[in-house]
Write a structure and sequence with these properties.
Layout (H helix, E strand, L loop, with lengths): L3 E8 L3 E8 L2 E8 L2 H11 L6 E7 L6 H7 L5 E6 L1 H10 L7 H14 L10 H31 L6 H31 L1 H10 L7 H11 L8 H7 L4 E6 L3 E7 L5 H17 L1 H12 L4 H22 L5 H4 L9
Parallel strand pairs: 1-4, 4-5
Antiparallel strand pairs: 1-2, 2-3, 6-7
Helix pairs in contact: 1-2, 5-6, 5-8, 6-7, 7-8, 8-10, 9-12, 10-11, 10-12, 11-12
Length: 335
């Protein structure tokens, strides 16, 4: 089709840098990353009513969310959320050496033209609210650990003023109260949606995933595209293995990419550790990896990745966790 234009939108906290290729000519614009700026961007892209625009932005956080939701409702603009790792690889293959907001927008415009275009499907309002609450719970949980560490250190010496100890204890109590309130708010959202409640009940059917970790995992997965496959879900979590291969003599796995959703990756860490201690099938898989010479942290990461595969299958097939499908335990030796 010759009536398609391609745009790249580089999103930052304060601005939206846009590179639009229209009829072979490059047009660059900058808009404020505000509701008013989003409306101006939409008007700019819709300027030619006889043209269709495909726009790409990177999924680097919440700064582009409101813009994407607004543009997804446009009459002649399609928007695509691209994985930052894929965009970086594309830029490297295109021999782009510099990095500025304008250059990033131009790379995204070329990406929109040459690469697979998956139209953005905005998550429901309930899913977006749940993700915000889940991420706040995550942040407060990290703060609580930090405050507890400070309290532990302060209590180790008699030189710490009593006022400091009282302040730290009060801070921990306030954080715990906030977490409790947010958990209640999250469960209210989940209970109000049949779809979210179904997903939540399936996720917590896995040994090791309780209410809190289930909320954190659901908050991220519910906002991801519904049509992604298990491999793409793993890549979005940054749990995909990084392979280094050269010729016929070098072929090694150098850890995981960590190029993806850190919240989902973090939310799976403790459940994986608990699961391989309590579920016999998950434990057998973990022990199998350790028996092959894998270090325990590496084996735990493999459990995280396999759990994510399992969650994808459970949600797709509407079935609770089945350990025998996770890992088939070896037959006991004959007597």
């Amino acid at each position: 089709m010759d009536n398609i234009d391609y745009a790249g939108i580089d999103v930052s906290n304060k601005t939206l840098e846009v590179a639009l290729t229209r009829k072979g000519k490059l047009v660059r614009k900058e808009f404020a990353n505000t509701p008013a700026g989003h409306r101006k961007l939409k008007k700019f892209l819709e300027m030619k009513t006889d043209r269709f625009v495909r726009a790409v932005f990177e999924s680097t956080g919440v700064y582009g969310l409101d813009m994407a939701i607004l543009l997804s409702d446009s009459r002649n603009v399609q928007i695509c959320e691209a994985n930052p790792r894929a965009v970086r690889r594309f830029a490297e293959a295109s021999m782009r050496r510099g990095k500025t907001d304008t250059m990033d927008a131009m790379v995204l415009s070329e990406y929109a033209k040459k690469m697979e275009f998956r139209p953005y499907n905005p998550p429901s309002e309930e899913a977006r609210s749940l993700r915000c609450i889940a991420r706040r719970i995550h942040a407060l949980s990290e703060m609580k650990v930090e405050e507890r560490n400070r309290l532990h250190a302060a209590e180790r010496t008699k030189t710490t003023p009593e006022a400091i100890l009282r302040s730290l204890k009060k801070s921990i109590e306030q954080i715990e109260q906030s977490i409790c309130e947010l958990k209640a708010a999250a469960m209210e959202i989940i209970s109000s949606s049949d779809e979210l409640l179904r997903m939540f009940e399936l996720i917590i059917s896995i040994s090791g995933i309780a209410e809190t970790s289930g909320t954190l995992i659901l908050g991220e997965i519910a906002c991801m595209p519904a049509d992604i496959d298990a491999r793409q879900l793993v890549a979005m979590a940054g749990l995909d293995p990084v392979e280094y291969k050269s010729g016929t003599s070098v072929n090694v796995i150098k850890g995981i990419s960590k190029q993806g959703n850190k919240y989902l990756r973090t939310a799976l860490h403790m459940p994986a550790m608990v699961a391989h201690q309590h579920d016999p099938h998950i434990k057998a898989y973990f022990d199998h990896l350790v028996g092959m010479g894998k270090k325990k942290p590496v084996a735990n990461t493999a459990v995280m990745r396999k759990l994510l595969h399992a969650i994808w299958g459970m949600l797709k097939n509407d079935q609770p966790f089945d350990g025998s499908k996770f890992y088939k335990m070896p037959e006991p030796p004959a007597a």
